[in-house]
Design a protein that fits this description.
About 35% of the residues are buried. The radius of gyration is 23 Å and the shape is globular. It contains 23 helices and three strands. A three-stranded mixed sheet has the order 1-3-2. The protein has helices at about 1-30, 40-55, 60-65, 70-75, 80-95, 100-120, 125-145, 155-160, 165-190, 205-220, 255-275, 290-305, 310-320, 325, 330-340, 355-370, 380-390, 405-410, 420-435, 440-445, 450-460, 470-480, 485-500; strands at about 230, 235-240, 245-250. Strand 2 and strand 3 (about 245-250) form a beta hairpin. With about 500 residues, the protein is mainly alpha-helical. The model has no long low-confidence stretch (mean pLDDT about 95). It binds zinc ion. Zinc ion binds next to helix 11 and helix 12.
């Protein structure tokens, strides 16, 4: 059994090597590759991805998993070995159900659809992408139907990103959250908006980076096992547990961009850097779900990085770096500026309060489209109606409405959005649990120390990688199942100080 287990592990390690190499090519493409490399790079990445897939779905892997069944049963559920077998089996069984030709066909279609979208969005031309989107919806349904027996057609599409969460549960959670959020957003946006002009002065980029990377390291991001580069769309990527990179974006005339994208991606990176080395090279060596991953980016970016306590310590330092720009801006003004709430059209620019309303709109629409209750031709109108109901404004065009996000135009419809809002909810839930265990955390944050918080997160979340599913890790770390209460309490306390919220 031992030797079979080792044989499986070496196969998995090779799969990981191929996927990491593909990841590195992608990282290079986004950072330093000259434009002339694009065509060959697309082919190279596709080749590596296909090889990794073929190696993983090889019948030999299935045979080893079968033979190791009794071994798994003889081990404790939470041992590394049993967890590796359990998680690998789950991923293997999913991977072999999707025919390779189907994946290739979808990849061809979505790369075409993406191309058309890049032209249709600036031209505000929904009619151009409509036939592509119709086909994408068709492919999405086909993909779900490789997994018959689902409760909701979106379930098989949600599963690879947020395993253990079903469309019905998420819908219920989101409906409750929406009921709380709409009145809070209404109350805030009825008041005069915060003045955030102080963030839009000229801030030399090198200094912005220096400051934000200093904070990232203070949070616990190790540059010995990481690095930062510049891209248009920020992301975190990992090639091994010893090489976890982030990319960020900066704008000379907008201070918050580099700062908060860095803290966001640092949160993702802390999760990956915190995984135990023993899990290296296996399917366990990554964060467990998109929702839990996003909880860490949101926790470090928003709950810590946009808190008054944090800036109590770091604002004087920021002022000393930018004395001309911020010298006469008080901590209070700055704090209000970085926590400005407004009715904005664009999800990625949205604040903590309204952000989830953007996400829930998309999630609900995905379900409705997959169910056949919302036709693509009616999507722009449905968007305007729902947007008005939630935000009180109507998007003036499709460009900043239904055409704004790349998701539906470059991958399948379903499963791509819920993680953001689950992340906001969970970030507060994990933070509340850390606070209950260590009441000294707020005082530490005020003095620029993050050790107790980071250690609690490492012990309770990060080290385990994918050993536990999201519902399991939430239960283990917080003692209860997913709950929106800590998040609502967090928003009410924080924004209740900044604005009149009513009741
Ligand atoms: Zn993120």
């Amino acid at each position: 059994m031992e030797s079979k287990f080792q044989a499986l592990k070496s196969r998995l390690m090779e799969v990981d090597d191929l996927s990491s190499a593909a990841g590195l090519l992608y990282w290079d493409q986004s950072t330093y590759m000259p434009p002339g490399g694009a065509a060959a790079r697309a082919r190279q990445t596709a080749t590596l991805t296909r090889l990794a897939h073929e190696k993983f779905t090889d019948p030999g892997v299935g045979k080893l998993l079968d033979e190791l069944g009794p071994y798994e049963e003889s081990l404790p559920y939470d041992s590394d070995e049993a967890s590796l077998l359990r998680v690998t089996r789950r991923k293997y069984e999913r991977a072999i159900k999707i025919p390779l030709e189907f994946t290739a066909e979808v990849a061809n279609h979505t790369s075409e659809s993406y191309q058309v979208w890049t032209e249709a969005r600036p031209a505000n031309d929904f009619a151009r992408v409509r036939p592509y989107l119709e086909k994408t919806l068709d492919y999405s349904r086909q993909a779900a139907n490789f997994f018959p027996g689902y409760e909701h057609i979106a379930d098989p599409l949600i599963e690879p990103r947020d395993y253990g969460m079903k469309a019905a549960d998420i819908s219920r959670i989101f409906a409750n959250l929406r009921e709380e959020l709409v009145p809070i957003a209404r109350a805030i946006t009825a008041q005069p908006p915060a003045d955030d002009a102080c963030l839009f002065k000229n801030f030399p980029e090198a200094k912005q980076f220096e400051f934000s990377m200093d904070v990232a390291q203070r949070f616990g991001y190790e540059l010995q096992r990481g690095r930062r580069d510049q891209t248009h769309h920020p992301f975190m990527t990992k090639f091994s547990l010893g090489d976890v990179r982030i990319t960020t974006r900066s704008r000379e005339n907008k201070l918050s961009d580099a700062l908060f994208t860095t803290l966001h991606e640092t949160g993702h990176a802390l999760y990956e850097q915190g995984i135990r080395m023993e899990l290296e090279g296996t399917p366990l060596a990554r964060g467990t779900s998109s929702g839990v991953h996003e909880s860490q980016s949101r926790l470090w970016e928003n709950i810590v990085g946009r808190s008054r306590g944090f800036w109590h310590c770091f604002y004087p330092r920021l002022q000393s770096i930018f004395p001309m720009q911020l010298g006469d801006v008080s901590l209070d003004e700055f704090y209000r500026a970085i926590n400005k709430v407004e009715r904005s059209l664009i999800r990625t620019d949205a604040d903590e309060v309204t952000y989830n309303l953007h996400v829930m709109l998309r999630f609900d629409f995905e379900l409705a489209m997959l169910e056949g209750n919302l036709e693509i031709c009616n999507l722009p109108d449905a968007w305007r109606e729902r947007f008005e109901a939630d935000f009180g404004i109507v998007p003036p065009d499709d460009k900043d409405g239904v055409l704004q996000d790349v998701h539906w135009y470059f991958s399948l419809i379903g499963g791509g959005f819920q993680g953001y809002t689950l992340g906001n909810i969970l970030g507060s839930q994990f933070f509340a649990a850390a606070l209950a265990a260590h009441s000294e955390i707020p005082a530490e944050i005020e003095s620029g120390e993050f050790g107790s918080l980071h250690t609690w997160l490492k012990e309770n979340l990060y080290q385990h990688g994918s050993k536990y599913t999201a519902p399991e890790i939430i239960e283990r770390a917080t003692g209860t199942s997913l709950s929106i209460e800590p998040y609502i309490a967090y928003l009410r306390t924080k924004y209740g100080e900044l604005y009149e919220l009513g009741d």
